[in-house]
């Protein structure tokens, strides 16, 4: 009688515990529903197509690449006038002070010689016209010459002059290159290649953004499916546990069997909590990528295309013309070739015409042609040319290596796409079989022909299959995205979502 009372008490305690758990679950559900209802006005649903447009138009990376692309175009436009005359307006304002020592010795000698010769000539003329004067001419010459010598001697042998002035001189100068050895044309070519490369860089960045969006968007859908699977498993385990409590109270099963269901229920609840946390984290990451905080629902589900319209050989042959990465690397090779031309041009002479016209009242001008050829600058130009040739050669080799790597990625991704398609078909068959097996095991347990372990295993097997179905669909989506990105046609991904013969994982 005491044992029966004790057993009855334990049964009541277990029933109360189950009721408490159920009540807590109901309260939690009501609280969650109230939160969802309160935030309904802020909730936002978005399709993959809308998310893609959002990323490609408003993301920071998009705006940064647009700015860089525009900058490269402006740089190419800026050098279009290379080779035309350069006209400068120059204004020189300067003051100067200069001290000069002017030697006067030669001037003194010339002055003395000139005066003496003039005086002597006059005396000779005077004597010829007056022959009666006799020998007065010579003493007169000596006296006058001595007087001239003494007078000129008073002049110093040198004179110091100080020059001071302030000048403002406006001029117009013109310089036009006539021959640069190919440097001008090479500079234009480099600028144009960089502008074209910026377009490819923008396309490559958009492809990367598409891939990141696919990964983030469908990861949310994957985590949602995993959460739904774990929630379904938790609800099923809770149902099995509640039934086990009733059967234990009625004496049909033992306490150990009932506790097996309790452990399974607790494990299912723990798994459900983990999937909830993962789902919230993935949703936050997607909102952050889209610069939003209100996205709560995604309208594009995980999918698997039942038929394959991609040909491996065609992908392997056409990717060099499609891949922005390969095209950009080929642009790098063209830049390296242009650099070879630049280095060769540095070895050649340059010829240019020049002119200058003064705008002041003196109106001085000068025109001419000049040539310049560097004989020595401390830089070995031949080695610069050799280095540029090696850089061009290395760029070609790196491009070929990149092609090999992309071929490997295409082959691997294609194989994974096909494998995921095949696995999806088998998983669908296994899910149907697992559902039927669970129904049989539950019926056998009620008829006391099966064990609790068999029911739990059947329930877990069904949950695992649902999880594997979602994981396989996510694997298919990411393999398809990797295949299209490596081929250079990831912008076509949207078309695969709406293809006929597509199974959606909802």
Automatic annotation (TrEMBL):
Signal peptide residue numbers: none
Major location (coarse): membrane
Keywords on record: Cell outer membrane, Membrane, Transmembrane, Transmembrane beta strand, Transport
Claim: Membrane is one of the keywords in the record: yes
Subcellular location: Cell outer membrane
Gene Ontology MF terms in the entry: efflux transmembrane transporter activity; porin activity
Pfam families recorded: OEP
Xref: Gene3D superfamilies: Outer membrane efflux proteins (OEP)
Cellular component, GO annotation: cell outer membrane; efflux pump complex
Family membership noted in the UniProt record: Belongs to the outer membrane factor (OMF) (TC 1.B.17) family.
Protein name according to UniProt: Outer membrane efflux protein
Annotated source species: Acinetobacter bouvetii DSM 14964 = CIP 107468
């Amino acid at each position: 009688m005491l044992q029966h009372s004790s057993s009855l008490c334990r049964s009541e305690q277990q029933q109360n515990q189950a009721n408490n758990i159920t009540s807590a679950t109901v309260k939690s559900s009501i609280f969650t529903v109230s939160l969802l209802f309160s935030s309904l006005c802020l909730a936002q649903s978005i399709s993959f197509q809308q998310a893609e447009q959002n990323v490609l138009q408003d993301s920071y990376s998009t705006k940064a690449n647009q700015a860089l692309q525009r900058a490269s175009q402006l740089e190419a436009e800026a050098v279009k006038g290379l080779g035309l005359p350069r006209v400068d307006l120059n204004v020189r304002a300067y003051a100067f002070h200069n001290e000069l020592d002017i030697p006067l010795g030669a001037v003194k000698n010339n002055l003395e010689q000139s005066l003496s010769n003039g005086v002597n000539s006059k005396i000779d003329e005077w004597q010829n016209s007056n022959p009666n004067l006799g020998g007065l001419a010579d003493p007169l010459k000596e006296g006058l010459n001595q007087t001239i010598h003494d007078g000129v001697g008073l002049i110093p042998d040198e004179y110091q002059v100080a020059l001071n002035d302030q000048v403002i001189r406006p001029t117009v100068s013109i310089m036009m290159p006539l021959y640069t050895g190919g440097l001008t044309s090479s500079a234009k070519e480099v600028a144009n290649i960089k502008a074209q490369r910026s377009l490819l860089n923008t396309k490559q960045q958009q492809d990367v953004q598409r891939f990141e969006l696919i990964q983030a968007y469908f990861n949310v859908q994957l985590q949602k499916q995993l959460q739904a699977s774990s929630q379904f498993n938790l609800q099923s385990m809770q149902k099995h546990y509640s039934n086990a409590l009733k059967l234990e109270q009625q004496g049909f099963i033992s306490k150990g069997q009932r506790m097996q269901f309790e452990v399974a229920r607790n494990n299912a609840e723990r798994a459900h909590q983990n999937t909830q946390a993962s789902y919230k984290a993935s949703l936050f990451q997607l909102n952050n990528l889209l610069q939003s905080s209100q996205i709560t629902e995604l309208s594009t589900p995980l999918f698997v295309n039942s038929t394959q319209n991609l040909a491996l050989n065609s992908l392997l042959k056409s990717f060099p013309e499609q891949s922005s990465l390969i095209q950009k690397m080929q642009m790098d090779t063209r830049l390296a070739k242009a650099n070879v031309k630049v280095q060769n041009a540095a070895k050649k002479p340059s010829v240019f015409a020049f002119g200058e016209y003064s705008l002041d009242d003196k109106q001085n001008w000068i025109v001419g042609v000049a040539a310049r050829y560097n004989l020595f600058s401390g830089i070995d130009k031949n080695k610069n040319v050799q280095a540029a040739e090696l850089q061009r050669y290395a760029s070609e080799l790196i491009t070929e290596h990149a092609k090999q790597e992309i071929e490997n990625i295409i082959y691997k991704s294609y194989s994974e796409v096909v494998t995921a398609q095949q696995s999806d078909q088998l998983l669908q068959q296994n899910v149907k079989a697992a559902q039927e097996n669970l129904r049989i095991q539950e019926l056998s347990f009620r008829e006391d022909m099966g064990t609790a372990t068999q029911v739990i295993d059947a329930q877990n097997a069904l949950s695992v299959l649902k999880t594997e179905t979602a994981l396989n669909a996510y694997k298919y989506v990411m393999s398809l995205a990797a295949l299209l990105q490596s081929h250079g046609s990831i912008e076509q991904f949207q078309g695969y979502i709406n293809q006929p013969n597509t199974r959606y994982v909802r």
